[in-house]
Design brief:
Blueprint (H helix, E strand, L loop, with lengths): L3 E7 L2 H12 L4 H15 L9 E7 L6 E6 L17 E7 L2 E7 L9 H12 L4 H14 L1 E2 L2 H9 L1 H4 L3 H7 L12 E2 L2 H12 L3 H17 L9 H6 L3 E3 L2 E5 L2 E5 L6 H15 L10 H19 L5 H13 L16 E8 L4 E7 L45 E5 L4 E4 L6 H14 L5 H6 L3 E4 L2 E5 L19 E5 L11 E4 L5 E4 L7 E6 L1
């Protein structure tokens, strides 16, 4: 067996393989994570795109310093005419036992940040040339990859969006009419051309200004029913921030800070659990465990909608809910599927990078002839809890995405993150609780069943609850709506976790809910 180079947890074999190739080429964790993100365009083509945005948490191997690279989308509309007519319309998607309305069209596009964010982070922290980092993805996009059952299910879920335009149909169908089936060959040579041209440019920023930005303006400017202006593109910046750090008795947790919503809510739930739930003497799936999870989720949801609730009131509310579960009276509906994916990489030197990428569900269009599908983040209800017209032009949208790090006192490191719309916060929260409070292994922590409380609805996986559905009775509320899943389901996200133990051993888990893959890379 060869020397270990690192570990990758990702959402497809292709994504993980690209990271492995970059590590074998001499790249570090950042190089590998960025290479994997480009490869999601081949291995997870409906789950995210380079026309969206993302967030990376990075750990430098030498210094141990953590930093956040925020390249999520901005709200558009700077200098836009007030009377411009928008192309913005609903589509209904069905997943599991639920249905959800999303909004697409040219007017649903936010200012994308994925390409500049990935390139900027790789230039800042990587050690390979950009051409070496994009090479695996470009080969896959040209040669094609076989679509598996999970990707077919994602295609079917998003069918109204993927078939909206001839350009989309050209890459998601073989006959221009019907979505691909399992075993069909998916390819996107136009995107391979775009990435190779970008990597060959002497200055990727100048290339982006001259190639991508004009195509975005032409396709999604006010004259075409969109909101994006030249001023929006000129004002966009990749932002570097200090993580939101939460101290824990067993170590520390590093999260995505404001303007993200996800990190703040996860920190709130974890703080409530550590200080007031007494879970370290509880077992997974016990009444105490489930009641504490539900109570923390309810308090976090209330804090997001009611910003006037201070820390003391939130703790009092949590304590009251622990005594007796209460129904919710919030009017918001749970967020939907969330076409988002995540990759986590730790290299042999102890450096790490975890990236969450999203394009919403895509808006039905591509950016010019680049092969890049465009986001519909302005049609995402979870990003705009106050309503679609509450955004401020030029501002970073408050994403729920939260690539996270857990560093324990004994020196172990876990990097994790997930897609899943509003379930991002509750999925990451539950996995961290499983690790730090309940003492589960990384694989057990990821694969254990989950619940999600939102807007008065309790969603629950019951497949490994003691007593099955009856295990929920201790937290039952009369008249409360429940949505039950008898197996692990993509509704609850896909937490891909890379782990390096205190002894240097590499491991982790790819979440089976979203076709997760774990690969330990050797030379």
């Amino acid at each position: 067996m060869g020397r270990s180079l690192g570990v990758v947890a990702a959402g497809s074999q292709q994504t993980a393989q690209a990271a492995a190739e970059v590590l074998r080429a001499g790249g570090n964790a950042c190089d590998a994570a960025v290479g994997a993100c480009f490869a999601t365009q081949a291995g997870e083509p409906s789950l995210t795109s380079l026309g969206g945005g993302g967030v990376m948490i990075h750990k430098q191997a030498a210094s141990g310093k953590f930093e956040i690279c925020d390249f999520f989308v901005n709200a558009p509309g700077l200098g836009a005419p007030e009377d411009a007519e928008l192309e913005f319309f609903p589509v209904e998607l069905a997943f599991g036992p639920a249905r959800q309305v999303f909004y697409i069209g040219r007017g649903s596009a936010a200012v994308p940040g994925a390409l500049p964010g990935l390139c900027d982070a790789q230039q800042r922290w990587g050690r390979l040339k950009l051409a070496e980092v994009v090479r695996p993805a470009c080969r896959m996009l040209r040669e094609g990859v076989r679509i598996d059952d999970y990707q077919v299910s994602c295609f079917q879920l998003l069918e109204p969006i993927l078939l909206h335009t001839p350009e989309n149909r050209a890459i998601f169908t073989l006959d221009g009419e019907h979505l691909m089936h399992s075993g069909d060959l998916y390819a996107n040579p136009a995107l391979a051309d775009t990435l190779e041209e970008m990597a060959a440019a002497s200055d990727w920023r100048a290339w982006h200004r001259s190639v991508i930005e004009p195509a975005v303006l032409e396709g999604f400017g006010p004259h075409r029913g969109g909101r994006i202006t030249r001023e929006d593109l000129g004002r966009y910046r990749v932002e570097y921030r200090q993580p939101l750090e939460l101290q824990h008795a067993r170590g520390r947790i590093l999260l995505n800070p404001p303007p993200s919503a996800g990190g703040r809510l996860i920190a709130l739930m974890l703080s409530l659990i550590e200080k007031g739930a007494g879970l370290r003497s509880a077992s997974w799936g016990s009444a105490r465990h489930l009641r504490a999870m539900r109570a923390a989720m309810q308090v976090a949801e209330e804090s997001r909608v009611r910003t006037d609730l201070g820390p003391e009131l939130l703790r009092e509310r949590f304590s009251a809910l622990l005594g007796s579960p209460a129904p919710g009276d919030l009017a918001r509906r749970p967020g939907g599927h969330g076409s988002t994916t995540h990759v986590s990489v730790i290299d042999a030197d102890g450096g790490g990078a975890a990236v969450t990428l999203s394009h919403g569900e895509a808006n039905g269009y591509q950016i010019g002839q680049t092969g890049i599908t465009m986001n519909n983040e302005m049609g995402e209800t979870d990003l705009l809890p106050g309503g679609f017209e509450t955004w401020r032009a030029g501002a970073r949208l408050a994403t729920m995405m939260c690539p996270s790090a857990v560093e324990t006192l004994d020196g172990s490191l876990s990097l994790l993150g997930t897609g899943g719309s509003s379930r991002i916060r509750t999925s990451i929260f539950q996995v961290i609780v499983n690790l730090l409070e309940l003492g589960l292994s990384p694989e057990q922590a990821v694969c254990a069943g989950r619940i999600h409380w939102e807007s008065g609805v309790l969603n629950a996986e019951t497949f490994d609850l003691p007593g099955g559905t009856a295990g929920l009775e201790p937290i039952a509320v009369a008249g409360e709506k429940r949505v039950l899943f008898d197996s692990a389901h993509l509704f609850f996200g896909g937490v891909h976790l890379a782990h390096r133990g205190a002894d240097g051993q590499l491991g982790g888990a790819g979440d089976p809910r979203r076709s997760g893959v774990l690969q330990i890379v050797t030379d």
